[in-house]
Design brief:
The complex is a heterodimer of chains A (275) and B (246). By secondary structure, chain A is an all-alpha fold. Chain A has 13 helices and no strands. In chain B, the strands form two sheets. Chain B has a six-stranded mixed beta sheet with strand order 6-7-8-3-9-10, sandwiched between helices. Chain B has a four-stranded antiparallel beta sheet with strand order 2-1-4-5, covered by helices on one side. In chain B, helix 5 (164-181) links the parallel strand 7 and strand 8 (184-188). Classes of the chains: A mainly alpha (275), B alpha/beta (246). At the A-B interface, helix 8, helix 9 and helix 12 of A face loops of B.
């Protein structure tokens, strides 16, 4: 089956479109998270998403609305992580760990109550971009617009906050407000990325493209653009390759992301040696 | 009555129940040049962070430009250069030009160019901040602080990483800003000799205010003689002729 043939399928078109949008969202937010050493927040929120999905499935909500229904709990958890971090008595990684453990523990208990791990929960654990529905595609589109607009509108504040939070405060940046916005957007991104890569691999969607872009040692603005390009490239090629070779799309996308990182890192090292 | 740029009343700040600053009160009027000096761990940087709202005092009030710190919003009136960036990531992908312009409109490109040249880092505009030496990074941050042309400049040990030539250029520039533009300066330093040459007033703190007054008064203070020793105080006071200032 050729690439042109694959692209004729409605569900493949939908998957690629959703993948591009969600990949773009993750890569844009990921730049700020990685540079602020919040890389693992995606992992933490993904575990909370597992708990949320278990709640939603236990309540018998239609799988069509699972993504939408899981959002409130994950958004609240992101704010809890932020508040725990800002107490200064709990380090950021420990705050993520606390919320993450509670999320996964709740998920396990609720999954057990609903009669064990059913097929639906597994599809969220490992992702299945090819089953993305119209609601999720629309949600991804709306959210992409929201994230892009937020980054454009708050670009100066986000730049200052990412560079140095204390300095940003003295420049009048409302750091608390910007942090809440960033964490809440990340929560939505984690829920959406669950459909692409699965709960187990959400953090890879947030971390790998920005890390690859950072290897290029280019300006901040260009790093954001490069991160977006790497993410979109890996999503498109990942979906097509997974379809051609009958592999799981989420895993394939993440492996391509990792391969891109290794490639850019390797090329950078070689060119540094040649200088 | 001159407008206070900074007014602090009975400020007390504790960290883990340990009193770092105790009953600090002073004012900085518009156009003042205040040098804050004191030994290591005396609370100089903590005082600055309280003034800027980074830390919250347990007691006392802080007013900036006549407004309570809680109500103050005109942060573009203040330029701040920290002792060191709290956690400068060596891989931060910001160019010098991006960082110097941080929070400032791009229409001031010519001023940006001039200020980078003035700081001797014009040729580094497109280099990443993490690729620069500590001294060059500090110069870039100085350029950022000066670019917004604020009414009040607050410096916390600004010249630690600078070579003597750049340090002198820095002090001269700050002095000119103070004298010709009326920019209010608050500068924390260990460099008592140099600050004595430029600052109109000195505040010596060691958790509380030990001395507050003009440089002339500082030189005549018996308490300061006791603290520094007669020889050191003499060196500080006469190395640079203070009569030039007044």
């Amino acid at each position: 089956m050729g690439i042109c043939e694959i692209l004729h399928y409605d569900f493949v078109q939908r998957a690629i479109l959703a993948g591009i949008l969600i990949g773009a969202i993750c890569s844009l937010l990921g730049v700020f998270l990685v540079l602020r050493r919040f890389s693992l927040i995606g992992d933490g929120l993904a575990h909370v998403t597992f708990g949320s999905v278990a709640v939603v499935l236990l309540l018998g909500i239609s799988p069509f609305y699972v993504t939408l229904a899981a959002l409130p709990i994950v958004i609240i958890s992101s704010v809890v992580i932020l508040k725990l971090t800002s107490t200064k008595r709990i380090p950021g990684d420990a705050a993520i760990g606390i919320v993450s453990s509670i999320g996964i523990a709740a998920g396990i208990i609720l999954a057990s109550l609903s009669g064990g791990y059913n097929i639906d929960l597994f599809s969220y654990l490992f992702g299945n971009i090819l089953t993305v529905n119209q609601t999720e595609l629309l949600l991804a589109f709306i959210f992409f617009i929201v994230v892009a607009a937020t980054i454009i509108f708050f670009y100066n504040d986000l730049f200052a906050l990412t560079f140095d939070e204390e300095l940003a405060k003295t420049m009048g940046v409302k750091t608390d407000k910007i942090n809440i916005i960033l964490f809440m957007l990340t929560a939505v991104a984690a829920v959406l990325a669950m459909r692409v890569a699965g709960i187990m691999l959400v953090s890879a969607m947030l971390i790998l493209p920005p890390l690859t872009a950072l290897q290029l040692s280019i300006s901040f603005r260009m790093t954001i653009i490069a991160s977006l390009i790497f993410s979109v490239l890996s999503v498109i090629s990942g979906i097509i390759i997974s379809f051609l070779l009958n592999l799981p799309a989420g895993g394939t996308i993440v492996i391509i992301n990792a391969a891109l990182l290794l490639l850019v890192f390797g090329v950078g090292k070689i060119s540094a040696l040649q200088r | 009555m001159p407008l206070n740029s900074i007014r602090i009343d009975d400020l007390t700040f504790c960290y883990n129940r340990l009193e770092i600053l105790s009953d600090i009160s002073f004012t900085v009027n518009k156009g003042d040049y205040l040098g804050i000096v004191g030994p290591n761990g005396s609370g100089k940087s903590t005082l600055i962070k309280n003034i800027l709202g980074i830390l919250k005092p347990q007691k006392g009030s802080i007013n900036l430009f006549g407004q309570s710190l809680n109500m103050f919003r005109d942060w573009n009136k203040i330029g701040y250069l920290p002792q060191r960036l709290s956690a400068l990531n060596a891989h931060f992908p910001g160019t010098v030009a991006e960082i110097v312009q941080m929070g400032i409109s791009k229409s001031q490109f010519q001023i940006l160019k001039n200020i980078l040249e003035l700081m001797g880092i014009g040729h580094l505009a497109n280099r990443l901040i993490g690729e620069l030496s500590y001294g060059e990074q500090q110069r870039a941050m100085l350029a950022h602080t000066l670019l917004g042309q604020p009414d009040l400049l607050i410096f916390d040990e600004p010249t630690t990483a600078l070579d003597p030539e750049t340090r002198d250029i820095f002090y001269t520039q700050i002095d000119e800003l103070n004298r010709h533009n009326g920019t209010t300066i608050v500068l924390v330093t260990h460099d008592t000799g140099l600050i004595g040459k430029y600052a109109r007033n000195l505040l010596y703190i060691d958790k509380k205010i030990i001395f507050s007054g003009t440089f002339k008064d500082f030189c005549a203070s018996a308490d300061m003689t006791g603290f520094f020793g007669a020889i050191s105080q003499h060196t500080i006071c006469h190395q640079h002729d203070p009569s030039v200032r007044n």
